[in-house]
Amino acid sequence: MELIIKIYAEILGTLLRNITGKLYTEDQIKRITSGATGKYLKEFFPKPQDEQDAAIRVESARIHIEAAGTIIRDMQEDLEVQDRRLSELMEKVEEKKKLADRYQTLADTNKEAFEAFRIEMENALRKELTEQAEKGKRIRQVISFLFWVLTLILGAALGTYFKEIIAWLGIA
Predict the structure, then answer these.
(1) Which 3-state string (H, E, C) describes 112-169?
(2) Residue 40 near residue 13 (C-beta atoms within 8 A)
(3) Cβ–Cβ < 8 Å for 80, 88
(4) Residue 82 host element (H or E)
(5) In terms of Cα–Cα distance, which of 45, 19, 52 is closest to 31?
(6) What's the burial of 41, exposed, middle or buried (CB within 10 Å: 0-12/13-18/19+)?
(7) In whole angstroms, what is the distance from residue 106 CA to residue 152 CA?
């Protein structure tokens, strides 16, 4: 109900300002509104152009201030998000740094033990490879000797009977 009364009063005020503004000049409006009772009637008369321009500028400034406030709030939110991300990143970096320091300490303490282990593994591997090489050495030597003798005999036979083989193949 109150809303309807406000709307009615605004419509009536606007209608009266338009009607009375057309009936009186600026000087007449100033004289009427300057009196004791005129203070109460002032809202029913149209505003002078300077006051209207000032009201428009004030409204424009209010809109710009609201827009600037919105932009500033958005920037603050973005900065807060970035601050949280940077804090998380710093925590991760600190964790990685602590982990790297721990591994470095382990590497430094285990360096001597690892060196001894490496030497022992090299010796064991060398011994195992030597044993495996010795295991089939005689058989490989005998087979290698037989292939050498066979190649020697085939080469001698080829050299001796080279002309007969060429003639038999019919190449020359």
Answers:
(1) HHHHHHHHHHHHHHHHHHHHHHHHCHHHHHHHHHHHHHHHHHHHHHHHHCHHHHHHHH
(2) no
(3) no
(4) helix 49-135
(5) 45
(6) middle
(7) 63
- Residue 20 CA neighbour count, 13 Å, CB half: 19
Return the higher-pLDDT residue of 129 and 113: 129
Asked if the model's pLDDT at residue 77 lies above 90, the reply is: yes
In this predicted structure, the answer to whether residue 23 has a pLDDT above a threshold of 60 is no
Percent of the chain with pLDDT over 90: 20
Q: List all residues 6 or more positions away from 46 whose beta carbon is below 8 Å from its beta carbon.
A: 17, 18, 20, 21, 29
Q: pTM for the whole thing?
A: 0.34
- DSSP conformational letter for 171: -
Q: Taking each helix axis from N to C terminus, what angle separates 162-169 and 137-160, rounded to the nearest 10 degrees?
A: 70
CA distance 90 to 93: 5
Pull the structure tokens for residue 43.
């809202």
3-state class (DSSP) for residue 11: helix
* Largest distance between two CA atoms of the chain: 150
